[in-house]
Amino acid sequence: MKDKIRNIEACVFDAYGTLFDVMAAAAHCKDELGEKWKPLAEIWRTKQLNYTWLRSLMDEYVGFWQVTEDALSFALETLEINNEGLKSRLLNLYQELDVYPEVSGVLRKLKQQGLTTAILSNGTEKMLDNAVRSADIGHDLDHVISVDRLKIYKPHPKVYKLAVDQLSLPAEKICFMSSNPWDISGGANFGFKAVWINRLGQRKERLPGKFVAELTSLQELPTLI
């Protein structure tokens, strides 16, 4: 039995990997990619994240869509796939990623409990609008917050402060969920009550910030708050 997370007024979610399945675009192209679909998805995601961190450190911000396209180009070249039509299909699919099966029901339950719900994401506003609309979860979200306002990526503390400012709540009243261990460390270190959605059975990062709970999916979240 996990301990209850008390005195929470809002639940804030990372988007990619937490609500939306970042492997889905490549998975939908298995017919063309064959056995390369999973390596492509993994390289694409790894480079996408690496580029956000490196661009933040270099003070060379571009929007997450450009980062996503650059990372895909790297992945395709690495796997020696030269197919512009496939690249376009993958990018189009990334605009409408599948949500994890429990997401819609969990958001609905949190709203029924009187909690404010929000997304805080590296994604651009357009990317997030497309994803939320495609998944039909907008009616259960009060805010969708993009780092585009700041021109810097997670895990910079200024990104997490966006949620505090938008929701007009102190960090300790916000429960923050992410499947990315570096992101959950960043949110916890900022002061959120952070819950790691460890979908992939990853090891804990050796980074600052202590999360309050670890789940394998979002399913249990409404019973914890």
Please outline what is shown here.
This protein is α/β, with parallel strands linked by helices.
How do the strands and helices of this protein lay out in sequence?
Elements (H helix, E strand, L loop, with lengths): L9 E4 L10 H4 L2 H4 L3 H22 L5 H15 L5 H11 L8 H10 L3 E6 L3 H11 L7 E4 L10 H11 L6 E5 L2 H10 L2 E5 L15 E3 L5 H4 L1
Parallel strand pairs: 1-2, 1-4, 2-3, 4-5, 5-6
Helix pairs in contact: 3-4
Q: State the end-to-end CA separation.
A: 13 Å
Multimerization state: single chain
Report the CATH superfamily of the largest domain: HAD superfamily/HAD-like
Total number of domains: 2
CATH-defined topology of the largest domain: Rossmann fold
* Series of secondary-structure elements, N-terminal to C-terminal: EHHHHHHEHEHEHEEH
Average residue-wise pLDDT? 97
Could you give a short account of the major beta sheet? 6 strands, parallel
CATH architecture of the largest domain, by name, is: 3-Layer(aba) Sandwich
Name of the top-level CATH class of the largest domain:
Alpha Beta
Unreliable sequence segments: none
Strand content: 5-15%
Note down, in words, how this protein is organized.
The chain is of the alpha/beta class and 225 residues long. The protein has 2 domains: 10-21 and 99-224, 3-Layer(aba) Sandwich (Rossmann fold), CATH 3.40.50.1000; 24-94, Putative phosphatase, domain 2 (DNA polymerase, domain 1), CATH 1.10.150.240. It is built from 10 helices and 6 strands. It has helices at 24-27, 30-33, 37-58, 64-78, 84-94, 103-112, 125-135, 157-167, 181-190, 221-224, and strands at 10-13, 116-121, 143-146, 174-178, 193-197, 213-215. Strand 2 (116-121), helix 7 and strand 3 (143-146) form a beta-alpha-beta unit. Helix 3 (37-58) crosses helix 4.
